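Incident log, structure service

09:12 report received: a user says their structure output differs between two submissions of the same chain.
09:20 pulled the input from the user's history:
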Amino acid sequence: MKIKKNALLYFLVLIYGYALHAQIPSKIKEAIPEETLVQLDIPYASDTLKKHTLDLYIPKHTGNSLPLVIWIHGGGWIGGNKFGDMENMKSTLKAILDNGFAVASIAYRYSTTDVFPAQIQDCNQAVNYLYNNSLKYNLDKNKIAVIGFSAGGHLASLIATSNNNTVNAFYYNNQEPRFEIRGAIDFYGPSDFIARIGSMPLDEGEHKTTSTGLLGAQPLARPDLAKFASPTTYIDKADPPFLIFHGDKDTTVPITLSKLLDSYLKLANVQSEFVIVKDGQHGGELFRSEDIKNKVLAFFNTHLNQK
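09:34 re-ran on a clean worker, output below:
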């Protein structure tokens, strides 16, 4: 009877694994090493919102708890999904998993549903959930880093710079997180909406830009909101190390915003490396180079105390 029960359990696990595998886009399947435990659509909040879920990728390990990389997708705060940037950066994703890091890709509310600070509240709540359930998933709650792309780069930077500040509005029900961020990687994310105001026309209409959509008002009309949502606002000497990538041909997010973030961090004596991707636009093939992948790995290995 025991053998039959074990066989049935194995069969059910196998079927569940195949069902999950079928939901993963083919490009990402190629990036997931064999024997990686994949759990999709884990709710990180007590409600039933689909946007309050995360996907978890746990590589094969020997029993030690694993350092965790939080992956935050882009999409102008109005689109994108948990798989989006993973498809574009599948080689980097595979390398991260191959090197023994668990990866959690989180969903968050779009600004078309709720304006800022809903997005950072969701991100903080998701990381808090993983911190509080680290034993369940065999994660090292003291080794957490973030990586984000475009709008996700903004949110990753904001988590990292505001984590050691008391900004009650950034936390669900004003519950401050217990986790600490050990490192942040920002791919071409907006860092300072005040600095970006200089390129905005006076006749900008409501929700004409994604920044206006995020804030729920024109940055020119509400510079207080623009400052409130800017990662540069919260920079201090206690912030974690940063690695910043930006293309010099980016016409979506000015490269000057990444340079500004890097400068503010260095002025606060925070370790920061700013990598200019020559001829790089807003994402694309040039960000999938071996050099960038190796820099990402070296950063995580260094600041999450691996290899």
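09:41 both user submissions now match this output. Likely a transient worker issue. Closing.
09:42 reviewer note: The longest helix spans residues 2-23. Residues 1-19 have pLDDT under 50 and may be disordered.
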